[in-house]
Design brief:
alpha+beta, Nuclear Transport Factor 2, Chain: A, 4 helices
């Protein structure tokens, strides 16, 4: 999986999202965005072992949508299993390029809101490169002192 997010781009996104000056931006703002980006890189279903990252990042009570259909922890994991199969059999490699990160941390805990946008895709065996835009809105909550994704709203027009 490829992620192309420079720390300065993340910091700039946090500043513009919060409407804050660079001096007012806290490490916590960057930390929440970095946590979600790191989590996505572990559970995005384009590599062996993504299930472990999924189990660590998503709360068992997560409410999710992927385009229109609604999912829970188990049904979203089933969808990602299906996507993993499509990616590993249909592409020679598959990556995500995150182009925008907006972070709004909660004031009194480790959670907050994060929106990611980007482009995903890769080359097919015949050499054709297939890409599509993707976006995610996530609610991250602190549960027993740890961060978990408690809401996940993903949209893409990728032809699945």
């Amino acid at each position: 999986m490829r992620f192309f997010v420079a720390p300065l781009a993340l910091a700039a996104a946090c500043i513009s999202a919060a409407g804050a000056s660079p001096a007012a931006m806290t490490a916590r703002d960057v930390d929440l965005g970095t946590w979600l980006l790191d989590s996505v890189s572990t559970f995005f279903p384009n590599h062996v072992g993504w299930e472990t990252g999924y189990d660590a990042a998503f709360a068992p009570t997560v409410k999710a949508t992927f385009n229109q259909p609604a999912y829970n922890f188990f049904t979203l994991k089933q969808l990602y299993t299906s996507i993993n199969s499509q990616i590993t059999t249909g592409f020679t490699s598959f990556g995500v390029n995150i182009t925008s990160v907006v972070v709004v941390p909660n004031a009194h805990d480790l959670g907050g809101l994060v929106t990611l946008t980007g482009v995903e895709g890769g080359p097919l065996p015949n050499g054709t490169v297939l890409t599509a835009p993707d976006s995610v809105f996530a609610v991250v909550s602190e549960i027993f002192g740890r961060r978990y994704i408690t809401e996940w709203r993903e949209t893409t027009d990728f032809p699945l």
